[in-house]
Amino acid sequence: MENFNKFNYMEKYGYEQMVFFHDQHTGLKAITAIHNTVNGPALGGSRFWNYANEDEAMEDALRLAKGMTYKNSIAGLPLGGGKTVIWGDVEAIRKDPILEEAFWRSFGRYIEGLNGRYITAADMNTRTQDMVQINKETKNVVGLPGKSGNPSPYTALGVLRSMQACVNFVYGSDDLSGKVVAIQGLGAVGYSLAEQLHEKGAKLIVTDINETVLEKAKNELGATVVGLDDIHTVEADIYAPCARGAVVNPTTIPQIKAKIICGSANNVLAEEERDGKLLVEAGLIYAPDYLANAGGVINVAHELREGGYNEDASIADINGIYGKMLTVLNTAKESGKPTFQVANEMAEERIARTMKLNSIYTRPR
After folding, report:
1. What beta strand segments (E) does 167-310 contain?
2. Full-model pTM
3. Poorest-confidence range of 30-34, 120-124, 225-229, 334-338?
4. 73, 162, 195, 211 — which has fewest CB within 10 A?
5. What pLDDT score was predicted for residue 105?
6. Coil/strand/helix, residue 170
7. Which CATH architecture best describes the domain 6-66+79-135?
8. Active site (catalytic) residues
């Protein structure tokens, strides 16, 4: 995407807004992309990553924002899609508590300046306590303590329910006991997913860059540890990408031995059209990522409901992912379309209906 024409790209894929934030006192560098607000204000987390360059950061923000539009739409939420990427060394910020608070409060003030068009939450390398600092400057943040809190276990629950739908589709039963699941990435969501799968009797094969967490999974969950480059090649029933995206591509697809691909990572397919068709040709079942990992956003969105957060209601909605995933899989089978295309059409149909009533979201006066 180096030196790409930003307006052409935004027009092609329907983006509304891209905003750059910079605070020289704290070193904050952030990009917020707002893709579509027809269904409501854009909701999407803020991820912290040390990107190689500005173009890489912009590409991540744009791709993730579009994914959030589709995720929130297919989940039936009254929300649009946006995402923030923060560019820098998260560990350097964490070392200085005074700088850390100033950093997040500065970011909160920038979010407040968007006047309610974007609501943020925790994401990769950001935490619930970061959201607390942001909340000191803006109400446009969810995933707070005493409310929905850490979204990771709920994201993992949605992935688990998606896996059960896929297993039912392939094997005729929801039962995960004895099924082998290869998990790529044991971060907050990946490890929670591993725990939930272990409780269901699944056998785990795992990998991560963190040796400590691998040892923990081995000791606590009986997981088998493999190398970073081997996880997608192991003999398994389910391959679960739970780290960064683009891991399903023309190089890896012929090497995948699992029948099902279902994980928590965003943008799992390097290129949707190309890789979605390659998966069909290979006979692999792909659970569209933004539906599989929608549990977290469903949970935090319950903070915005009238009457406040209710965990039981949230879990009931997350369990609804199961039925939607089965609909995607069955429709794909009947139509011959790739699963990503079926999911996209479901999300786009809802947006198109709402677009007859709304254009873009502005905070009510």
Report:
1. 180-184, 203-207, 224-225, 238-241, 260-261, 285-286
2. 0.91
3. 120-124
4. 211
5. 98
6. helix
7. 3-Layer(aba) Sandwich (3.40)
8. 83
